Amino acid sequence: MHIIVAIALILIIGSLGSAFYFMMTDQGRTKRMVWSLAARVGLSISLFLFILFAHCMGWIQSTGIPLGR
């Protein structure tokens, strides 16, 4: 699970970096920056849904903060 989450975070940061690169080089002439940001949002939502699914399947356990502290 740790490896999958780490890879997903690296892909999200990479997509954000590519959007920044396209913003600087294209100067608004193409839609590559928009597609990169859309991919980042899609990856983020997918990661969130995967974490929820993994929790429901019992693959990961939530620890949280104990009540009363």
Main sheet record: none
Q: What's the rounded overall pLDDT mean?
A: 90
Helix content: over 70%
Structural class: mainly alpha
N- to C-terminal distance: 29 Å
InterPro entries: DUF2909 (IPR021313)
Pfam families: DUF2909
Protein name: Probable transmembrane protein
Keywords: Membrane, Transmembrane, Transmembrane helix
Gist of the model:
It contains two helices and no strands. With 69 residues, it is mainly α.
Commentary on this structure:
With 69 residues, the protein is mainly α. It has one domain (2-23, 30-57). 74% of the residues lie in helices and 0% in strands. It has 2 helices and no strands. It starts with a helix and ends in a 12-residue tail after the last helix. The model has no long low-confidence stretch (mean pLDDT 90).
Helix/strand layout:
Blueprint lengths: L1 H25 L5 H26 L12
Record keyword descriptors for this entry:
single chain; 69 residues; mainly alpha; 74% helix; 0% strand; transmembrane helix
